[in-house]
Give the backbone structure.
Amino acid sequence: MPIRLIATDLDGTLLRPDLSVSPRTRRALDAARAAGIVVVPVTARQPRGVQRIAEAAGFEEWALCGNGAHGLHLTTGEVLFEAHVEAAVQRALAGALSERVPGVLFVSVRRGGEVFVAQAGYADIAHFEDHKREPGEMGRHLLDDVLAEPSLKFIVRHPELTPRELLAELRALNLGGYAVTHSGAPFLEVLAEGVSKAWGLARLCEKLGIAQSEVLAFGDAPNDAEMLAWAGRGVAMANAEAEALEAADEMTLSNAEDGVAAVIEELLGQPCSTAL
């Protein structure tokens, strides 16, 4: 069955290490679109983070943001869906984890990803690259304010523990009502129960009338694993983490070597391996 939709992660996958879209990758994406294939960014970023590279990549249509929790059209602004972590779930998680791991900090990303409510102390350990947002814009809120409203993404971070270490502590709580993942960034990303990139992609494909077997997906991080396993053809980057590699059907070159472009070129019968 032919490929009708390409779903690609951004950071560590489509983008080079300097966060640029290479000319070769742009040509490959344009060739796919010209062949009638829908190209969809599927990312942990919020819409504002996607818009930063949309022009360079030619993204003008559907995007799946927040690890699949938020589906929207980049040009019209139409929202296909939003899935929120309920406030009661956040409060239970924050209370139990704070008792187990003192010093943990939380952020609520709300209202289409535009509102970022960070607990006091979070901005002090954050960098622009973490959220494509200046730390000075994050605010310094009381925990009660962070937990007051449902979140598209609920961020959990510790000044000293790695995301994998923090994930082990969170799982040890044995709570329910949410999903949790991480993307290579220095924090965990808590989503509504059942939500993943695969979940969001399945909903978009249903709207577009595209079968699971007609999807080609690319990724590199643990938060890409469900999508790579779900897609008819899942491709992990050479720089991918173990979870993505195990979930994928195959591996391509690294993001520094334009691995996404290499697969698209092969798919379309347009090899451009010497292109820069």
